Predict the structure.
Amino acid sequence: MALKKKPVTGMKDILPEEMVIRDYMIRLIKETYATFGFSSIETPCVEHIENLSSKQGGENEKLIFKILKRGEKLKLAEAKEEADLVDGGLRYDLTVPLSRYYANHANELPAPFKALQMGNVWRADRPQRGRYRQFMQCDIDILGEPTILAEIELITATTTLLGKLDFHNFTIRINDRRILKAMAAYSGFAPESFDTVFIILDKMDKIGLEGVRSELISEGFAEESVNKYLELFAQVTPDAQGVAFCREKLEGFLDAQYADDLMIIMNSVDQIKGADFKLAFDPTLVRGMSYYTGPIFEISMDEYGGSVGGGGRYDEMIGKFTGQSTCACGFSIGFERIVMLLMERGFKVPGSSRKVALLVEKNMPADKMITVLSEAKALRDEGVQTTVAVMKKNKKFQKDQMTAEGYTEFKEYYVDRM
Amino acid sequence: MALKKKPVTGMKDILPEEMVIRDYMIRLIKETYATFGFSSIETPCVEHIENLSSKQGGENEKLIFKILKRGEKLKLAEAKEEADLVDGGLRYDLTVPLSRYYANHANELPAPFKALQMGNVWRADRPQRGRYRQFMQCDIDILGEPTILAEIELITATTTLLGKLDFHNFTIRINDRRILKAMAAYSGFAPESFDTVFIILDKMDKIGLEGVRSELISEGFAEESVNKYLELFAQVTPDAQGVAFCREKLEGFLDAQYADDLMIIMNSVDQIKGADFKLAFDPTLVRGMSYYTGPIFEISMDEYGGSVGGGGRYDEMIGKFTGQSTCACGFSIGFERIVMLLMERGFKVPGSSRKVALLVEKNMPADKMITVLSEAKALRDEGVQTTVAVMKKNKKFQKDQMTAEGYTEFKEYYVDRM
């Protein structure tokens, strides 16, 4: 029987060229985050379907790859709906599994706990160019740290990593969900309409101030509120002074401490930064997930239109899951997007570029072959990438191909010259 | 809603302590195999259900985690059997996906192609101690190399890796499926009964020669054949001389070339070996999968009862899948078993053990905090694992806990002493 040759819809095979970059990134991420005291952890790719369907995953819950029950548990004839057939699903993010992991192991883990997770997640999204149904996520989270030390450490670790990957001139946009809410409250929007307002506000960078205005109006919001709201955005500057402006303007709607904290985060990160990036206060930054409770942040790169990572504080989520209140803050980088950007740039992984091919004439007798293999051993022991290959008829073509693969040196061995 | 705290049945959460070993192993494996010229590749964890059910996977095909169709494709009311409901499954090994990958990308890959795959596979096995339903596999394969250079390189690469992981005194047991068959044919067994004979032979190390004898007899095989067969095993020595004995004894049943090749493999690997291990010819070695066509090998360690890895030549499998004949040979190490052995040994990952904790008094003002963060930055820039933590009330307890986590140095910062 012939095999289906293509991968399943929306997922991809990874070729050696891309793997070199991925492997390098994984190593650099693990090394860099380790210096910040993050510990690697891992959860199974399969998660209880109940945990995946607990409403914390938002839209992602519609995109679950579900796993059929097995053996006697699968009662096909009696099944009335999908839920009767499945008991698991592939995780769609690393946050839900982290919550479960922490609930299961809190006693064995330090407090606060600094976790690094790198792993695949799956979403049955409509396939589109550059977006895959299986992709790597890379999250750092600090659980149990209530102070802004968590935010400062997360942003510093992430920007240090990006700097090591040779990214410059990117921007960390930063906001606070409580400032976001205070601006809406100050303008006269009712709390129950905040989500609608924020979904529209989130489009600011695409449709501009006037676009947001007309969408809010057509949504039926009072013109007075809309005007008051948009005037705020026109006045706020994208820096710590913008935060100070909000602190003053939103008095009565915003606890001044939140603004002060945000200014300290921005100021601290800026003073100790080791990479070349900008920090910007962006009061239009919403971040999709409603579980965020405090500061939120996102990485913007000019090279890439959208966001290449983001995160924020989510103090209530783990408690909702586990019954035990645990403050938490996380930062996720868009691993696949960064791989893509590095590939597009023609990024070369640093390190030794010496690669040796030992080409052996066909039917080399065993005793002479030992000489070649010993030479390969000596090179490999020094860490040099070495391959032993049987010489082909068209040796020039063979060497050209191997050169394209990255081989830099060739040695040839002939039966009668050994 | 409270979350289910335990992982799904048969799968496990990995704690930081184990992850340190896993991450180290992954790095060492990638580095070591790279020096042998193997290229990393990756396939999706989800595979077409047709590919997984193509009869190449043997018993593993009964253990597939199947994935429900999604959206309009799922016709629950019309479904008559399981197959109507699923379109994918989690891969149960890395060999079937490798065949698909090679069929899909042969034109983009060098010939021969040396592939390294590390990735999770899933099998819905009965849960038992130390065996999990999600586990990491680590395979190297050489596709398109017909000569025994493939076997020599695979065994040398694998044993070099094990040596770097500080394993000694392990044994590589080696045989050839064609010697296995020739011994059975020589003894008078009919080809169609070979599989039955081999399943019994495979138990030799558990039930001994007499156990094998009585099982073969009770299976109804002629006593003459059984006696002739077992006499062979009693005569063969576990070394190259044993192969030479087979070469002579099995004349007419075995192409002498196969025996010569096996002797050259054994001799070459032995002469260039960089680790401390034994090579043994083991004519009772069967290897479960029927797709093997030539030399087969397995790693035995006294520390661990069973096999910790194995492989062999499977020249016909890829062709069956792809329609294009491609010779292939692979070696897989039991990643999880090796992790387990290292954990049991109390293995410590080599490298810098300096870990610094900067403990900061509560409510440290922002300007003084910068001093601490800058110090953390300087240490991290040097590659030192550094964490900044808020001082707890019970500072002694906090430091004891961090010491247990591996922190070796503490610095304390007080508001009024800065």
Chain B touches chain A through 110 residues (CB under 8 Å). Chain B has a mean pLDDT of 93. The radius of gyration of chain B is 27 Å.
